[in-house]
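assembly run, all chains below
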Amino acid sequence: MPELPEVETVRRGLEPHLSGARLVRVIARRPDLRFPLPDGFVQRLTGARVESLSRRGKYILAPLDRDDTLIIHLGMTGRFVVEAGGPPQAPGEFALATPADPKHAHIVFETDGGAWLTYFDARRFGYMDLIPTATLELHPRFAAMGPEPLSPAFDAGRLARAFAGRRQGAKTLLLDQRVVAGLGNIYVCEALHHAKISPFKPAAEIGTRKLTALHGAITMVLEAAITAGGSTLRDYAAVDGAMGYFQHDFRVYGREGEPCPTPRCGGVIARTAQAGRSTFHCPVCQK
DNA sequence: CCCACGACCTGTGGGC
DNA sequence: TGCCCACAGGTCGTGG
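ok done. output:
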């Protein structure tokens, strides 16, 4: 699943086709993704113009020229494929833009620009919803969400306040979207390694200097990953099928047993199961 | 508040 | 080759 860099890459791929476009056809091939689609999903979208395309944390936001904003979460395996020239065959009852994986092609948008955007999601952990734009920020999904990590609202002081008094491990806290929005398992492991902080270190015990390093590491890792088009492990790809290549820059994620890349460290990357998820870190240089 | 764990759902890759 | 298990980028809910 896509974390912030992958979601941002998808957003950038969709933007030229969706922003300012009108949805001339919407097809929901099943009534639900992770959750039921909202009442009247197809009708409420059909004929609407998408005003812009933005991102908040791991959500893509598409405010409409109606009262609603379409929100999209890609879950673990959600992805879009864009066919800028429309479906390859004449539209019949249902001409799927990309028939390679019809079983998991759940939602299709056709725009007045002639583009077909198909949402695929094998595991169906993703979801879409329509939320009144006026109250978007008050919606439970967004009200408690932490700052955007690449915005000025997120700085070392903000991190320090979020960590103060918390005995939870640094990794668990960083995965909490209320602390900072958009981080997931990969980039948390990477950022903690860059900042030389153990994932298990109780948050409140991390000093100011390391918190500053952590803030810098989060920013740097996310920016580099966005530049690389995200990380492609299995399902993820940009909307034109392009692979991300940041996975080649992983220092710890998926590198169990390999030497720690920190100069003169000599440690070996360990993998630890933490609440059902894999944590990768160097026990020598991450304290 | 913290943590562990199961659930959601399906596919894939590794080991035997 | 085939089968089974572990594991996968994310939440969400429950129970101790």
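Helices of chain A lie at 4-18, 41-45, 140-143, 156-163, 170-175, 185-194, 208-227.

The longest strand of chain A covers residues 105-111.

not gonna interpret more than that til we talk
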